[in-house]
Structure formats: C-alpha cells, structure tokens
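Contributing new records

If you add data, match the layout below exactly. Sequence lines come first and carry their own label; structure lines follow with theirs. Keep one chain per record. Anything else will be rejected by the validation script.
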Amino acid sequence: MVQSLLVQSLLNRGGLELVTRVGAGLTPDYTLMAEVQAFQAELTGPDQAQVRISMQMTLIRESDRSVAGIRHFENTAKVTSDSTAALIEGLDGVTQLVLGRIVVWVQTLT
C-alpha cells in the first residue's frame, strides 16, 4: 500500500518523466529503494492514540550503481480518538506528509 502511494506521489508531484515499479522492463536512470520500518497506531490512553510512519529511503544512480542519497523519514501524530476512522485519518495525514518530504528529497537529487 505504501509503495503504491509513493509511486503515485512521485508521478503526481515529482516532476519526473517516468515512474514505475520494478519489473516494468525498462532501464531506469535511478532506482528508489524504500524500507517501511513502521506504519502503526499505538494506544496511549483512554480514547487516545499515536500514529507513526518511518521509512528508510536509498536512491541509486543506475549509470554507475552509486548511491545518490540515503535518508530516513519519520512522522508521528497524536489522535484524539481510538476509533478506526480517526486512526485511518491520522495514518493518512502522517503518510502524506512523509511522502511529500520524500518527493522533495528525490527532486533535489535527480
């Protein structure tokens, strides 16, 4: 799910000519490796929770297989309800913020 959102974010906001998943049969200029380290909601008290996303990104320049950049992205937010709708909304918010930061980072390196 997060990979699909990342690809969509790079397509919509990245200013890149082409963004695909691995296995599309194309030779890329760059490969972006993403490791989702955390994507969770934790109860912190009665009717309270905290949502968190943490991702390690590595951008590889394919022309010489060198590392163009490595960066860790993380965001947390408090949610004032432990309802499913509130947790989903909170996770969406922290995810969109992190994806936006990743897009800016990729733009500066490519």
